[in-house]
Amino acid sequence: MSDGPRAAPQRFFPQSTRHLLGVQGMHPTRIEPFLDLAESYALMNRSRKTPRDRLRGRTVINLFFEDSTRTRTSFELAGKRLGADVINMTVASSSVNKGETLLDTATTLNAMRTDLLVVRHAQSGAPALLAQKVDASVVNAGDGTHEHPTQALLDALTIRRHFGGLHGLTVAICGDVSHSRVARSNIHLLTAMGARVRVVGPPTLIPGAIGALGVDVHYTMEEGLRDVDVVMMLRMQRERMTGGQVPSAREYFRFYGLDRRRLAVARPGALVMHPGPMNRGVEIDSRVADSDQSVIREQVEMGVAVRMAVLDLLSRAGEPT
């Protein structure tokens, strides 16, 4: 019976790091096994020969306190392609909606002997709190404005597949940086892997202390996109904004939307990325989103592969070498 792709060396995944709560502070030697295994799974997914026995007998619960399509569905596909029993729980159909606390939910899930718990929550730190209270390995599927580690991993894998590596590349992360957990995780991961990162956006949507993370800050697209290898657009998150941060969608696109004219100042063949869902005509022009330079659909494909790798490797965290 196939064991699936070869496991990463156990020293990278000791019991104390059996969760994936964020990428801040992660060393490249821990990041690379996720990317390497995900690359294997990407190839296997295309061949439709995934190892459906890898997580046989394991239970994965997707616990989503926020709406999601791509992330939840890709985690569900990842678990099922590895042979796990996958249960999707949403707030609307859970006891949380009846007033149950997060810690009571943790106690309940612990009693169910769950193996892997995938959590999305509107409050930063919620997955980390659950990780302290459950025996399962916990994966952060996005918490507040804090982190979204699997999105950063799938973005890194997408970039690596086109350039062969991340070291020395220049990546511009553009738009609503203040409210973006995707931006934070990508900054941590890309800088750790030797890429140069720029953040680009209006002053109202760029955190004042962002430069401390080792990024260059630009307030115009024309300046920020000059000679970059990758342009990563962000969704404008109106649901997290206070009044007055952006005058209107039309004005936002006028100054910070990605169109062909602005993309032309990047390096020839620069990749165009977006974590989705896209607001066409607000963050990005359709002609750019659907162009040959766009890898947005590939990001979705790599999302399944990365989440398979994450579930696989975390499930091995407590196994002997």
From TrEMBL:
What positions does the domain Aspartate/ornithine carbamoyltransferase Asp/Orn-binding occupy?
168-313
Q: Which GO terms describe its biological process?
A: 'de novo' pyrimidine nucleobase biosynthetic process; 'de novo' UMP biosynthetic process; amino acid metabolic process
Where in the numbering of this chain does the Aspartate/ornithine carbamoyltransferase carbamoyl-P binding domain appear? 18-160
Of the GO CC terms on this record, one is: cytosol
* Recorded catalytic activity of this chain's protein: carbamoyl phosphate + L-aspartate = N-carbamoyl-L-aspartate + phosphate + H(+)
Its pathway is: Pyrimidine metabolism; UMP biosynthesis via de novo pathway; (S)-dihydroorotate from bicarbonate: step 2/3
**UniProt keyword list:** Pyrimidine biosynthesis, Transferase
Q: Which residues bind L-aspartate?
A: K98, R181, R235
Q: Name one GO molecular function term.
A: amino acid binding
What Pfam families does the record tag this protein with? OTCace, OTCace_N
Keyword Transferase set for record: yes
**Which superkingdom, per the lineage?**
Bacteria
Q: Which residues bind carbamoyl phosphate?
A: R70, T71, R120, H148, Q151, G276, P277
The first-level EC class reads transferase
Which EC number applies?
2.1.3.2
* The protein's role, per its UniProt record: Reversibly catalyzes the transfer of the carbamoyl group from carbamoyl phosphate (CP) to the N(epsilon) atom of ornithine (ORN) to produce L-citrulline.
Q: How does it assemble?
A: Heterododecamer (2C3:3R2) of six catalytic PyrB chains organized as two trimers (C3), and six regulatory PyrI chains organized as three dimers (R2).
Family the entry assigns = Belongs to the aspartate/ornithine carbamoyltransferase superfamily. ATCase family.
| The protein, known as | Aspartate carbamoyltransferase
Protein species of origin = Gluconacetobacter azotocaptans
What is the phylogenetic placement of the source species in the record?
A: Bacteria, Pseudomonadati, Pseudomonadota, Alphaproteobacteria, Acetobacterales
